[in-house]
User: What shape does this take?
Amino acid sequence: MSTSGATSSGPGPQVKRGLAGVVADTTAVSVVDEGAGQLLYRGYPVPALAASSSFEQVAYLIWHGELPEEADLAELGRAERERRQLPKPVVQALSSLPVTCHPMDVLRTAVSMLGAMGTAGGGDLEASVDLWAKLPTVVAAEQRRRRGLAPVPPDPSLSYCENFFHMCNGEVPDQEVLRSFEISLILYAEHGFNASTFAARVVTSTGSDLYSAVTAAVGALKGPLHGGANEAVMGVFDQLEGPADVEPWLEGALASGTKVMGFGHRVYKHGDSRVPTMRTALEVIARRTEEGRHLLGVSDRLEQAMRDAKGLYPNLDYPTGPAYFLMGFDTPTFTPIFVMSRVTGWTAHIMEQKANNALIRPLSSYVGPARRELPGRR
Ligand code: COA
Assistant: This one.
């Protein structure tokens, strides 16, 4: 293989580390417009979707490119409710995993196993709906397993969000909690060529299958620089007893080169367009309890301090982490909830990649030793 130019003494090929600024392909799924500070799913502004749509409607939009008619939505809802149960071998395999592993490991294993069993039937759209329906069952059962509780079976009379809470806690919360949760799912559903979506597209581009691509995407989302940040944010709040702790803590963190989780973004350099909507959803939950109001106070102070110190803005994970905490989810469940939502975007991208495929295979700039002979073979 040629490494033309890579080892020459002159300037080598331009390296775009982390593929920053590289436009790798076209997509019709969503656009992140940093200049305009907006995110559109299939052309629709996401705050408008969050204000008026259900997560089921948004999932349909992401997959099909248009909002559903009433009959389409009913059909999708019926399919989702029918597909919530996990096959027995999957339940058995997941319950044999050590309870000390991260729930993202459980989810990654579940996706891989569902693919191996091939129970979805049909094509990629059916498989997408099947995964979307089954992942909440995995996430809820795993939170309960870690708490030493038996799983609560899905209830087909309940909506997607209602059923998820039911499977987690055996009860459905009030409308304020449900709606704030649903808004978080709508905001998390899709975000262009982020690392996990790109991972899914890379796997798909080799001609591999949807489950392999989603398995890779779950692995990519787990990292704290990506989806894992919504859990890592709670690690920051755990270190801050009150607003007065913020500035001294931040000074120490920045001096030691620590990245403050929940801040910064590869694309948004002047603020994440999804944050105002999620911040409002967090506020709805936080203002209900003393603990919530306290957390909000610390969160606001840190947001201001980060802007003053580094000119950095919070990303979506910053308000979502505390919102999930106040809704009663265990911290290791936060990123798996992100998966429940983003699986819609991932699978839309997988189908888009397949429909107009080009193998994704970038080049590298070689910086190793120049050609040399093996010892003793001159
Ligand atoms: N805390 C402290 N400093 C940060 C920071 C953070 N969260 N995010 C970025 N920076 C600083 C970097 O240290 C760097 O400073 P320097 O120029 O003085 O070296 C500068 O801002 C640019 O950061 P860089 O990491 O090169 O930007 P990026 O586009 O590659 O990174 C993230 C984007 C998301 C990986 C990065 O902001 C980050 O690690 N954030 C925390 C994790 C997180 O919340 N992830 C969820 C993203 S939605």
Remarks:
- Residues 230-325 form a domain with the Cytochrome p450-Terp; domain 2 fold (CATH 1.10.230.10).
- Residues 18, 225, 229, 259-266, 310, 312, 315, 317 surround coenzyme A (CB under 6 Å).
- The longest helix spans residues 124-146.
- The radius of gyration is 22 Å.
